[in-house]
Amino acid sequence: MDKSQDREKISQKYLGDRGLVVLIALLSAFVPLSTDLYLPALPGMGDYFGVSAGLTNLTLILFFLFFSLGLLFWGPLSDKYGRRPVLLAGLALYIAASIGCAASLAIWHLIAFRILQAVGGSAAAAVATAMVKDVYDGRKRESVLAIVQSMVVISPAVAPVLGAFMLPYTSWRGLFVVLALIGVVSMVGGLLLQETIPSRYAGTMKQSVRRLGTVLKNPGFASLLIVFSLVSTASLAFVSASSYIYQEGFGLSEQGYSFYFALNAIALIAGPFLYLWLSRHISRRTIVASGFAVMVAGGVLVCLFGSLGPLVFALALFPASLMGSSVRSPGAFLMLDQQEEDTGSASALINCSGLVFGSAGMVLVFLAGENLVLGLGAINVAVGVVCLAGWMLIGRRGLVRF
């Protein structure tokens, strides 16, 4: 490893500390921004192309799949060549693909450009978490992770509302133009960014990619990765099914859907701040265990009462969304803390695993047939039970430095 850079000496001449946090949050938000902005348009897009909801949903599912694969490429690459060049290359591809999505003439064109958009956007997510580890330590790192998570989940609240209110004035194509503009703003931030990596991997590119396996051999990291990635199964199941639940199930308009979606997103926004407050009084282990238990309870509420109406459904899901969000910050902190080196690879695996499990949730929720509410509730119950059991097992075997 080249130790030519020292973490304490890394500073952002142009962005400053606050600017760096904002840029990291924006880069981390590429997944929700790239999906949630056009969620209100999904049913209409299916009608425009004359295809089924399942085929239209491929624009979501394949995006997450290739986003996950892209992370495994960009993460190790950023350990070898640095965060900044990887970020700029990925953003250039993302911008071009977003323009291609806006110009698509058939559903298969849109799917193809969404795949390219996913690969480009994954570079942003791969370096974002790694930059937090590059620059910050200890409690400061945990606080920044919580702030970034809070800023990130603002996008699920704002994006559907923005998309719904844009649709009367533009088509779904205009929504992809907005994504291209977000890519341009991020590119400006990337150009102002000064390299954050404290040391670079000196091996070959092939050896760099193999570091993914080295990271996975760390039992503490691997066990935490499975537990906290499972949380994404429930959250992305909701993202995938929400427009169909609210618009087709409850008969809401696109604008009505966006407001109820935002209600659930408020829980996601509040989660990291709730964790920071609770962590001053309660141990991290207790907070995480309680979070998983609340997910189980919330899932039960959705199963029992979620079909009564849109407001009842949103309120029943609220506690599960709140606590599912609150455990993300300590989860990310603990996973990064287990790995002294190969931060880019660790970051890639964290994001990739979450999206893989999340993509599974997007498929599983539709296996319930027309009763998507019951399927979503059952997923929350199952995820909460499995995560709680896994968390207790990790603590009992002493696999992790808490």
Task: Give a summary of the structure in a few sentences.
It is a multi-pass membrane protein. The protein has 402 residues and is mostly helical.
Overview of this protein structure:
This protein is mainly α. The protein has one domain (7-397): MFS general substrate transporter like domains (Growth Hormone, Chain: A, Up-down Bundle). It is built from 17 helices and no strands. The protein has helices at residues 16-28, 30-36, 42-49, 53-56, 58-81, 83-102, 107-135, 138-166, 172-192, 205-216, 219-249, 254-278, 284-305, 310-326, 328-337, 343-364, 372-397. It is globular and about 55 Å long. It starts with 15 loop residues before the first helix and ends in a 5-residue tail after the last helix.
SSE topology sketch:
Blueprint: H1 16-28, H2 30-36, H3 42-49, H4 53-56, H5 58-81, H6 83-102, H7 107-135, H8 138-166, H9 172-192, H10 205-216, H11 219-249, H12 254-278, H13 284-305, H14 310-326, H15 328-337, H16 343-364, H17 372-397
The number of helical runs is 17
Beta-strand content bin: under 5%
Uncertain spans: 1-9
CATH homologous superfamily label:
MFS general substrate transporter like domains
Number of domains: 1
Give helix and strand order, one letter per element, not per position.
HHHHHHHHHHHHHHHHH
**Helix/strand structural class:** mainly alpha
User: Do you know the CATH topology?
Assistant: Growth Hormone, Chain: A
* Quantity of strands, as a count: 0
- What is the CA-based Rg, rounded? 20 Å
| Annotated CATH architecture | Up-down Bundle
Task: Give the fraction of residues assigned to helices.
Answer: over 70%
Question: What general outline do the C-alpha atoms trace?
Answer: globular
Characterize the biggest β-sheet.
Answer: none
The end-to-end distance, rounded to whole angstroms, is: 27 Å
CATH class: Mainly Alpha
What would the average pLDDT be, to the nearest integer? 85
